[in-house]
Design goal:
The chain has 113 residues and is mainly β. The chain contains one helix and eight strands; from the N terminus they run ββββββββα. A four-stranded antiparallel beta sheet has the order 1-8-3-6, with no helix packed on it. It is globular, with a radius of gyration of 23 Å. It starts with a strand and ends in a 16-residue tail after the last helix. The relative contact order is 0.30. About 4% of the residues have low confidence.
Length: 113
């Protein structure tokens, strides 16, 4: 079984700004370009740049977050720690025939001759 994060990928053009009203428990990751982030009433400036150590940001704060693109960028917004499990499913043919060429269960009664 594999797990995959639950996430949304968003492009953000140079000089565009995105506001997230309640970023608590979200993880913001810069996958392309460079982003400037700030939380409402927080003196810190956070810069995320793709391909560097400072690529992600997460907070438990329930305050608006502004994300500003310093260049054409792409970001991923994910629920921090949330994963979805997937399994590799058999093909439709394999599920019905198990490589015997015949259905495991009849799909419909045979027609009267």
């Amino acid at each position: 079984m594999k797990t995959h994060p639950i996430a949304t990928v968003l492009p953000l053009a140079h000089q565009a700004t995105l506001r997230i009203d309640d970023p608590a428990h979200l993880e913001i990751t810069c996958t392309e370009g460079s982003l400037w982030l700030t939380l409402d009433h927080d003196r810190r400036d956070i810069v995320l740049t793709a391909g560097t150590a400072d690529v992600s940001f997460a907070t438990g704060q329930h305050r608006p977050l502004l994300i500003h693109a310093l260049q054409d960028s792409e970001l991923t917004v994910a629920v921090a720690g949330a994963q979805i499990a997937t399994t590799q499913a058999a093909t439709l043919l394999d599920r019905f025939t198990r490589n015997t060429g015949k259905p495991l269960l009849p799909l419909a009664p045979p027609l009267a001759a």
